[in-house]
Amino acid sequence: MRAMQATPSASNLPLVRRLEAVGFRAWPAASVIYDGSWQIRLAGGHPSKRLNCVVPLDPSDFRDMDLRLEKAGKRFQAYGRPLILRETPLAPTQLVEHLSEAGWKRFETVNVMTADLARLALPDTIDHLPTHDVSRFIDASLLVAGEDPALKPALAEVLNAIKPAKGLFTIENSAGGPVAVALCVQDNDLAGVMGLAVAASARGQGRGTEILSSALRWARISGARSAWIQVVADNLAALGLYRKFGFRQAYQYHYWREA
């Protein structure tokens, strides 16, 4: 059975390629190799799916699919990772059909959204300036997101490997505890907002709007003209926030794993 795929028109594929490229630079994997046009991304310490996946980047490159998937699987096994493939609109239709017929399953869909920063009504001043204390930002991020503190060294490795300019944003409550975090990476005229999270105890208080406003204002002052985000398709609260800021869907991607 042919898998359904939301595919932009050919005229939109250059945008997809550009957003994929800035996304790779904004969230760099420790190991990146190519098998033809398939990018194989792996990270020994951090379990992020974006850091540990195969990403086909040419719709015409579908030769020797079984052999190449088998070779990729051995690389993932060496890292102690399950083999995951990320299907963007650049993935060959033949490969997507092959995965479906071979029993692979889609297990997550992510929306990539963009906004024109020039059209956004943002405050004249930045309420929260980015911090330069990477260690403190990581501690806040792990606490707000409820993630394992043991991930700190791996997250530090990822953040320190980001080459474009980055803004690390945190909001604290009156007691000094973190309640919201966001990472903004400004790459020439594009800025990506990632890792935006609000503590469960602070939701519904406008903290998401507050920290996103600061990140986007910083990006615009720094020279970005457009912003992009990636958000899981069933995260309705985040989608509502981003749409309020003028973000609209550019494309979707999907994660696949063996059954």
Description:
- The protein has 259 residues and is of the alpha+beta class.
- It folds into 2 domains: 10-112, no CATH class; 116-252, Gcn5-related N-acetyltransferase (GNAT) (Aminopeptidase), CATH 3.40.630.
- Helix content is 32%, strand content 29%.
- The protein has 7 helices and 10 strands.
- It has helices at 13-26, 65-78, 93-101, 134-145, 152-161, 207-221, 236-244, and strands at 31-35, 38-42, 53-56, 84-87, 105-116, 165-172, 178-187, 190-198, 226-232, 248-257.
- The strands form 2 sheets. A 7-stranded mixed beta sheet has the order 4-10-5-9-8-7-6, with helices on both faces. A 3-stranded antiparallel beta sheet has the order 1-2-3, covered by helices on one side.
- The longest helix is centred in the last third of the chain and has 15 residues, at 207-221.
- It is globular and about 55 Å long.
- Residues 1-8 have low confidence and may be disordered.
